[in-house]
Automatic annotation (TrEMBL):
Species this protein is from: Bowmanella dokdonensis
Keyword entries, A-Z: Signal
Entry-linked InterPro entries: Cadg, Cadherin-like_sf, Ig-like_fold
Keyword Zinc: no
Domain Dystroglycan-type cadherin-like: 43-135
Record keyword Signal present: yes
Pfam families reported in the protein's UniProt record: He_PIG
Name of this chain's protein: Ig domain-containing protein
Highest taxon above the source species: Bacteria
Bilayer-spanning residue ranges: none
Region of interest: Disordered: 24-58
Length: 826
């Protein structure tokens, strides 16, 4: 009751109040209002900052900011680079980054505030660009190019400088990081002016990044520090001949350049260098119109060397037999000698450069490593030792010869008091008469015709091959240092020969000693310097693991053959498989107890009282050429050159063979080296387009376990070369035995009776590789009816070949187009 009365009262009161607010009679004014509070507008900010700055250059960016309300503004920043400062009143970022600040600085954000509200620019990134400054200094010679333009292109930018009266140039180069690739190979060109317009020289120097590193903080690099900065006839010859090895294209990286130059024949380098010098300096040998000493040898049809030979023939300076015209020959030799003795062209060497252990080996082609060579140790007192290994049917035949040495400029001479070695020589066989010709003794070795006639007349009485005893008196080398650690050699050996026909194998009279013949031999070799330092990349983690190493041990050789009535043994550095981990272990093939450990740049192996040092001096990432120092009781006993390789055996040999080694013609696997002491030989066309090679045995493993071994057909006409299935190796088969070895088998039959004459097995231990290159350790067992009893008894008629490392390369026989076109192997 009370709540209801109170509600009614409120209702009446509200009505009265509303009526009062509605006004009474007359015109009443509106009631006054309160103005709204002012609205605060956020400030605005704008601007486009620079996103990069060179090191050493100033950077500045100040945004534009405003406030519609006229409020005071303050600025702030996040992610400010360490090299920059910030002005909170203006919002400016400024600073000068140095080289150590090079890099990217992301998400920089500048904000402006009126005290209540703020706005920010979108985040931005500033890239500090490293600027590479370097001044290259060298010489364009020989003779000096005066006022010549020296140019180079790095990335997309070209730089140039002029030479002075002595041919010297100073070439500044300034580049940002973004304007080049670190591996870009810098190439210098120089073109003469006036009377020297026909002279154009070139030199591939190094990667731009490596030049920067060599210059260091000095930002200057001169030819005295890096000889390739000199543009010469030698650098031009190297450029042209190296490009030949790359299908006519110049190298694009320094590592490729080194490989290509390593593949160039030293004699070609010397000859072309001398020829370029003659054309540059000698008016008697003018350069054709519109050609230069560089462009003359460049065309799409011929290699540089072919172009040089063609030009010489056209000028009448060389005959069809390859002999130079007498006057030209003298001029060319003088130009070569001048080239090799000019310190601006060829870096000067010192005695210190020569003191140490060196290896002389055949200069390999791109991607190859030597498998043998002479080892020379030159000592500071002028004495030295040559470690020479001879081929003696697989038995180790290592000799040491003392010598004295002297250097004259870039030439070094070795004099041997007593160095006598056995040398075989090639006799040409007359297939119609079955007799041999010994004319080579006169033509190549200087013997008189009377000796040749006497030996030829008694050829039917010689039942064992005669040979020569070669005495080396002096070796003279002209040295050409190169930047990748080896020296090209050109020089002569002064030797004398004595014909030696063992009387034990002669039925009848022949002279036991023939007149001594003196002959000067030219050489074309490569000298690996400071071998004892090893390869810098050959370190601990790489060296640890399983390796195929050459180890000195004895194996059976002949068993009950007509050459020996009892088992004989062969001792040599046979290949073995060893775990390199510093712990005692058993070598896989020889079963010797060994300890092998990885040291700095080498592997050390201990077998009882014997120790081996394996020092790698050349590599193609698959094989290592190594100097083997073999010591007994701490005393050095032998030094030889061999191969070694890391072992990566397949878990499933059959699967590996099926997936990688089975091929179809014209593809097959070519054995690069046939034995541990043999040099690898290349197979290619000569200048006349004919097939030339030494060893070309191509193994073709077929899916049905068939085997073909293909070589050159020696009975083919020389004008129509062709391949054949080898008579020696022929058709055979392959299988994987229980030891996981690949066994290649071949049976031999008598061509007259058709009866089994013998059989041969090759056992390959697969060491690993890829679809193009593969390594195996090969062992051979050859069984024949040696004792001619009409039966093949493995216990009496066996012939064993010791384990050796064989390098297989996948080869396309059709690359020798003419020979392949003449071949039918179906």
């Amino acid at each position: 009751m009370t709540r209801s009365r109170f509600s009614s009262f409120l209702y009446v009161l509200s009505v009265l109040l509303l009526a009062g607010c509605g006004g009474g009679g007359g015109s009443d004014s509106p009631a006054p209002t309160t103005p709204p509070a002012p609205v605060n507008n956020a400030p605005s900010i704008s601007g486009t900052p620079a996103t990069s700055v060179d090191e050493g250059s100033g950077y500045s960016f100040a945004p534009s900011a405003a406030d519609a309300d006229g409020d005071s503004l303050t600025f702030s920043v996040t992610n400010l680079p360490a090299w920059a400062s910030f002005n909170a009143e203006t919002g400016e970022i400024s600073g000068t980054p140095s080289r150590e600040h090079a890099g990217s600085y992301p998400d920089i954000s500048i904000s402006v505030s009126d005290g209540s509200l703020s706005r920010a620019l979108p985040g931005f990134t500033v890239q500090v660009l490293a600027v590479r400054n370097i001044t290259l200094a060298g010489k364009a010679t020989d003779a000096p190019l005066v006022n010549a333009q020296v140019t180079t292109t790095v990335g997309q930018r070209e730089f140039s400088a002029s030479t002075d009266a002595q041919g010297n140039y100073s070439l500044p180069i300034v580049l940002r990081d973004t304007e080049y690739q670190p591996e870009d190979l810098l190439t210098l060109k120089a073109r003469g002016t006036g009377e020297q317009t026909h002279i154009e020289l070139i030199s591939q120097v190094a990667s731009f990044e490596s030049l920067i590193e060599m210059a260091s903080s000095e930002e200057q690099l001169a030819a005295g520090q890096w000889h390739r900065l000199n543009l010469t006839q030698l650098s031009t010859a190297k450029y042209l001949l190296a490009s030949d090895k790359n299908n006519g294209s110049a190298a694009t990286t320094y590592s490729l350049l080194e490989d290509l130059e390593e593949a160039v024949d030293a004699e070609c380098i010397q000859t072309l260098s001398g020829l370029i010098k003659l054309l540059a300096d000698h008016t008697a040998y003018p350069v054709p119109e519109n050609k230069t000493t560089l462009s003359l040898w460049q065309n799409d049809e011929n290699s540089t060397w072919e172009a040089a030979i063609l030009w010489l023939n056209e000028q009448g300076l060389r005959d069809t037999d390859g002999n130079y015209a007498p006057t030209f020959a003298l001029d060319l030799q003088e130009a070569i000698t001048t080239t090799l003795n000019d310190s601006d062209v060829v870096p000067a060497i010192t005695d210190e450069d020569l003191i140490g252990v060196h290896i002389i080996a055949d200069a390999p082609q791109q991607g190859y490593v030597p498998s043998s060579g002479e080892v020379l140790e030159l000592r500071a007192d002028g004495s030295g030792t040559a470690y020479i290994e001879a081929d003696k049917g697989g038995d180790l035949d290592a000799h040491q010869f003392e010598f004295s040495w002297i250097r004259d400029g870039n030439s070094v001479s070795l004099t041997f008091p007593e160095r006598v070695e056995k040398e075989s020589f090639s006799r040409s066989l007359n297939r119609e008469t079955g007799s041999y010709s010994y004319q080579i003794l006169a033509d190549e070795y200087g013997f008189g015709q009377e000796v040749v006639n006497n030996v030829t007349a008694n050829d039917d009485k010689i039942i064992w091959r005669p040979y020569l005893r070669r005495q080396t008196h002096t070796q003279t080398f002209q040295l050409m240092p190169n930047t990748n650690g080896y020296i090209w050699l050109a020089g002569e050996h002064q030797v004398s020969y004595r014909l030696d026909i063992p009387t034990g194998f002669v039925a009848g009279y022949l002279p036991e000693e023939s007149p001594v013949s003196v002959k000067t031999l030219g050489i074309d070799k490569q000298l690996y310097v400071k071998v004892q330092e090893g390869l810098s990349e050959f370190e601990g983690s790489l060296a640890n693991g399983q390796w195929a190493l050459p180890v000195l041990y004895r194996l059976p050789w002949y068993e009950g053959t007509s050459f020996a009535t009892q088992v004989t043994e062969n001792e040599n550095f046979h290949q073995d498989i060893v775990e390199v981990n510093g712990l005692p272990t058993t070598a896989e093939l020889s079963q010797q107890q060994v300890i092998a450990e990885a040291l700095s740049h080498q592997i050390k192996l201990t077998v009882g009282n014997d120790q081996y040092q394996y020092i790698p001096f050349a590599s193609n990432d698959l094989l290592y050429a190594v100097l083997v120092n073999y010591s007994v009781g701490g005393e050095l006993d032998k030094r030889v050159v061999r191969w070694m390789s890391k072992v990566n055996k397949p878990d499933d040999a059959l699967s590996q063979i099926t997936s990688e080694m089975i091929t179809e013609l014209p593809l097959g696997w070519r054995a690069v080296s046939q034995s541990h002491f043999g040099y690898w030989k290349s197979s290619e066309y000569n200048g006349d387009g004919l097939l030339i090679y030494d060893h070309l045995y191509v193994y073709q493993l077929e899916e049905n376990n068939g085997l073909k071994v293909i070589d050159r057909d020696p009975y083919a006409d020389i004008s129509a070369p062709r391949f054949r299935v080898s008579e020696i190796y022929g058709d055979g088969s392959w299988e994987v035995n229980t030891d996981g070895k690949l066994v290649l088998g071949k049976d031999f039959y008598d061509s007259t009776t058709g009866l089994l004459k013998g059989y041969r097995f090759r056992y390959w231990t697969l060491l690993g590789g890829n679809e193009q290159d593969y390594l195996v350790i090969e062992e051979v067992k050859w069984f024949d009816d040696w004792n001619e009893n009409g039966e093949i008894d493995p216990l009496e008629d066996g012939y064993l070949v010791f384990p050796h490392l064989k390098w297989l390369k996948k080869t396309d026989l059709s690359q020798w187009q003419e020979a392949w076109a003449n071949t039918n192997l179906d």
